[in-house]
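Lecture 7 notes: from sequence to structure.
We start with the chain below.
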Amino acid sequence: MTLNCNGKIIDFNTQKIMGILNISDDSFYDGGKYNSLDKAVSRVSEMINQGVDIIDVGAVSSKPGSKIIKGEDELKLTSKYIIEFSKNFNNVLFSIDTYNSEVAEFALNKGFAIINDISSGKYDSKLIDVVKDYNAGYVIMHMEGDPDNMQKKPAYNNVVDSIYTFFNSKINELDNINIKNIIIDPGFGFGKSIDHNFEILSNLEKFKEFKKPLLAGISRKSMIYKFLNTSPSKALNGTSILNTIALNNGADMLRVHDIIEAKECLALFNKLN
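Predicted structure tokens for the same chain:
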């Protein structure tokens, strides 16, 4: 459970907190909040002080209904942030949330450690080559459909079995080309109904069979706020509860908007155990 990601060692024998940094104007929760260099740098500093382990930087929304963006267009949005972060925070572990090879390579070349790819190579086959060339950490996520249609009546015979089959196939495919630094993400909210999401959460431990770090990205998502008939801004308490359940069911990393509260969940969970 120790990964060497672009020359940076990440020990998953202790659970990790991945902080979300959306520099997009269109994120479902905090769009526009960190859309300038000053705001983004300030937020990175704040997350570091709060004890974040990894910072996941993304410039493109993947919320339901969003469109796929070209690599050259995404790079125009992200490059100045990547340069600034690598220059000022060279001891911090950064991940880039992208499905485009141009952006992935630019970030890895500047010292980023992980590629967080919602498409698992579906949208840009060259991205897999970039991951291999840099020996990067690679988050593969299960998504049924695409962001613009994934929430239009998602259906499965068995959602947990479908995700298991996907991971089994993808991990074998990557293993065959000697890509080992894999993190798996079942993709809460990506082509799943509320009931699907809770079924996945209840059975999260099944994915531990792959012996790969397991990421849970539940933070402020619709499985919380739609079920409780509220909003993303009021979904922090629900996030903390479900993050604690995710830890109990085997999550190795929590991807969150709120670092302090996630760290408290983790501290209390580890005290209990």
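Points to note: Strands lie at 2-5, 8-11, 16-22, 54-58, 93-97, 114-117, 137-141, 182-185, 215-216, 253-256. The CA atoms of residues 170 and 176 lie 10 Å apart.
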